[in-house]
Amino acid sequence: MSTLKEKFKAKADEQAARVRKLMQEYGHTKIGEITLSQVYQGMRGVIGLVTETSLLDPNEGIRFRGYSIPQLRKQLPKAPGGHEPLPEGLFYLMLLGELPTEQDVIDMSNAWGRRSHVPNHVFDAIDALPLSTHPMTMFTIGIMAMQTESRFAKAYASGKIGKADYWDYTFEDAMNLIARLPRIAAYIYRRKYKGGDNIQPDHSLDWAANFAHMLGYDDESFYELMRLYMTIHADHEGGNVSAHTVHLVGSALSDPYLAFSAGMNGLAGPLHGLANQEVIKWIKNMQQELGGGLPGKEQIAAFVHKTLSEGKVIPGYGHAVLRQTDPRFLAQMDFAKKHLPDDELVNLVWRIYEVVPPILQELGKVKNPWPNVDAHSGALLEHYGLVEYEFYTVLFGVSRSLGVLASLCWDRALGLPIERPKSVTTEWLEQFVKGQ
Ligand code: CMX
Prior knowledge:
Number of helices: 20
Bound molecules: carboxymethyldethia coenzyme *A
Helix content: 55-70%
Protein name: citrate synthase (unknown stereospecificity)
Distance between the termini: 61 Å
Keywords: Transferase
Structural class: mainly alpha
CATH architecture of the domain at 275-383: Orthogonal Bundle
Pathway: Carbohydrate metabolism; tricarboxylic acid cycle; isocitrate from oxaloacetate: step 1/2
GO molecular function: citrate synthase activity
Strand order of the largest sheet: 1-2-3
Radius of gyration: 22 Å
Strand content: under 5%
Enzyme class: transferase
Shape: globular
């Protein structure tokens, strides 16, 4: 029976041949056009990347290797007695392009358990930071401190490897990083919020449940939430800030620790992953201003208008690609209906969902008035007592490692080159349009 790495290599060789054929036969075929506005407006809609792990449809939402979130919730292997997919299975799917068996998922859990040792100097680096440091800063510093362990960097520095070997060391680093991130994230949480009272890992648990355990939440339904959370936040095709950054930095052959840490700095921005903390902050402000509890729709609408009039965005709403309610929002709503239908904060999130879209639509400029993944996640975490919202983006980051590191393995296996798009000046564009 072949190992995961051997299976990946076989798939990668097949895919590389497919890409070579495509390039040879259709390398000059035009697949799009670019307007001047797109150049100024964040390259929206410009196809410029290949990401094999997932594809985002504006109306249907994300599909991982062709499978939608509802399909994955049904078809991926579950923990014994559980109902939510195990993220180990999603990683297997994104890496190999095929659904795993129960045994494949158990093997992945065990492999990550064996690889999960974090050297002490990583904790020392985090300990050197003041407690007031944002958890995302602690997280990226922890990852950077762990770069000493990069097999890719060591092998490259030795001068003994060539381009055909890069995928192998990238694969090793990706597996080790994924295995170790929950330990680093939990350490940050316990240090910042629980007086440094750390909880040792329990490798009899799956990856997400063990993470929940190390955070200090040993409740079967919280384990289920973590399995779902880690699955739905894992990937959102390649153009979003975190995924694109990992790909870009990795394209310079910066090792997976450097590339992933760079991506996490992008995830830490309020228009991207930090939106999950911003949503809860905004809802708490609303509750405080409106006297607590579950405000009525008119009160919510007035608060939304006030936020907009202050020149701010409504966090958790809108998307650069999606044009419908995010299926990741709906998956969380479904989880909440099953596990915590009467939770007040969750009910407030649902009421906000009824109020915000028509208001954003009325503005006339917002392309997507519907909620994204971040609109719901905080309320679920709060329910279980994980109330320290500055930590929420770290959870997103641990999950995001699955998609972006599977993709990085593919980047090196396909031998993708350094990324270097062309930029121009406004003067260049003025001259260009004059010549039209
Ligand atoms: N509230 C208020 N205004 C919004 C808005 C929102 N939620 N979403 C978009 N707009 C505004 C934009 O700020 C922009 O205004 P200006 O023209 O005055 O600058 C206009 O509508 C057009 O923007 P767009 O094309 O609809 O959206 P973009 O592709 O530029 O940006 C996003 C997408 C997500 C950054 C934006 O919708 C936003 O800021 N949302 C709130 C933050 C958020 O929830 N981010 C998380 C996204 C998911 C993730 O990555 O985790």
